[in-house]
Specification:
By secondary structure, the protein is α/β, with parallel strands linked by helices. It contains 15 helices and 13 strands. It folds into two domains: about 220 residues, Rossmann fold; about 180 residues, 3-Layer(aba) Sandwich (Rossmann fold). Helix content is about 40%, strand content about 15%.
Length: about 425
């Protein structure tokens, strides 16, 4: 069975979790093609799983739409009617939403001839935006079926993708990674087939590689965007310094807020305490996990409604036996259980969070206990070889079932992990 994964860019440093997912699903016997609508973000072939074929799409091919759209409409005039019905009464939820869906439509028309000649059995849009638009349109034009992922910004930012409900209703299944998302998706479209399959790690790191520090060292790995709540980290670090607590805080990641965060760090006089390290390779990130005493996640719901699901950096920190301090957000709180696998503190509560950091710094025994329990959580819930089996089963059984109406009647998939 051949699956066409449709992504935005592939591979990318910020989405190594997708690469691990594809590798693990392919290892179970499914043939995977990856179609990247914006090509590659990085050129390195070692990010590409063995046996997986990558098709980076060039935007220059969109010129072919001049004749390919009329060609397809001549082949199936009903596409015009369906398109009008689909768009009727809709309002775009932002210019970027308009552009990514438009790219998905263009990609589908530009590549449909190639897909007709291929042996692809099923299309899978990795995110619910333009990638799923492309998957749905290609499935319609080639007589196949499609599934979709729905995880974070594509569900919540500005209320989610402009055509989210329509896509959810038409997909043979929806893949998501948190129990909070399962509830939300079933609220939107109760009859949808929602599959909970968390991402995962291929293996656990060797804890003998961990290093001790002379100064208490905190680590955050996050894109520098509003939903990560990094401005609160600076305020809390300022409070820690005011109280005379010695520490080093390293932030790995890039994003639109970098310049603003750097100015805030300088204004607070924290140049020695806070290091903005930028985007790093996966190997370098792992080395910083090994050098840290505490992992800090301050995800929030931003002004546009965007939020994380379960950030993959939390289980990655767990795997290193690190104590994780997290904000109380849905998704993260499914893994970080206060006092059991980690510690919860609202970063908007500056003084109480600063106090929590100092208490965790002093209580090494508690940090070690929480880190050990977090690693056990990863072993039970976040290994890619286990979670990929859920996706592989869904691809095979939903795609090959006799009729769409009967899909799901005889299948049992986890909705709680």
């Amino acid at each position: 069975m051949k699956i066409a994964y449709i992504t935005y860019q592939y591979p990318t440093l910020s989405q190594t979790f997708i690469q691990r997912e594809i590798k693990s699903v392919a290892a179970l016997g499914l043939e995977i093609e990856v179609h990247a609508m914006r090509g590659r973000a990085i050129p390195f072939d070692h990010f590409i799983p063995p046996g997986v074929v990558i098709y980076p799409f060039s935007l220059l091919r969109l010129w072919t739409l001049i004749y390919k759209i009329p060609q397809e409409l001549f082949r199936d005039p009903a596409l015009i009617v369906r398109g009008i019905q689909f768009l009727q009464g809709k309002r775009w939820r932002g210019f970027d939403d308009f552009l990514i869906n438009l790219l998905g439509i263009g990609f589908a028309f530009a590549t449909v001839d190639r897909f007709r000649q291929s042996e692809v059995d099923h299309y899978h849009g990795v995110w619910a935006t333009g990638m799923t638009t492309a998957a749905a349109l290609l499935a319609k034009m080639t007589g196949k079926r499609f599934s979709m992922g729905a995880h974070a910004f594509d569900l919540y930012r500005h209320g989610g993708d402009s055509f989210l409900k329509e896509k959810l209703a038409r997909a043979v299944f929806i893949h998501t990674t948190t129990e909070a998302n399962v509830r939300y998706l079933r609220h939107l479209v109760p009859q949808s087939n929602v599959i909970l399959s968390r991402r995962g790690l291929e293996s656990l790191p060797d804890l003998s590689l961990k290093k001790s520090n002379s100064c208490f060292t905190i680590l955050s790995v996050a894109r520098l965007v509003p939903k990560k709540g990094l401005e609160y980290q600076i305020k809390i670090c300022q409070e820690l310094k005011r109280q005379g607590f010695p520490f080093i805080h390293r932030i790995i990641g890039e994003g639109t807020l970098r310049d603003g965060l750097q100015k805030e760090i300088e204004a607070a006089g924290l140049q020695k305490e806070i290091q903005l390290l930028g985007a790093l390779s996966q190997k370098e990130v792992q080395e910083y996990y090994a050098q840290s005493d505490l992992f800090w996640h301050t995800g929030l719901v931003d002004a546009e409604g965007d939020r994380d699901g379960l950030p993959n950096v939390i289980p990655e920190a767990f795997s290193w036996g690190l104590c994780v301090l997290s904000s109380p957000t849905p998704g993260a709180d499914e893994a970080v259980l206060h006092g059991e696998t980690g510690w919860i503190s609202d970063p908007r509560q500056i003084e109480s969070t600063a106090r929590a950091i100092q208490e965790l710094a002093v209580n090494q025994e508690l940090r070690q206990k929480l880190g050990e329990e977090g690693r056990r959580w990863v072993e039970a819930h976040f290994m890619s070889s286990q979670n990929a089996m859920i996706l592989e089963k869904a691809f095979r059984e939903f795609s090959l079932s006799a009729s769409l109406e009967s899909v799901g009647d005889h299948l049992s998939y986890p909705t709680h992990q």
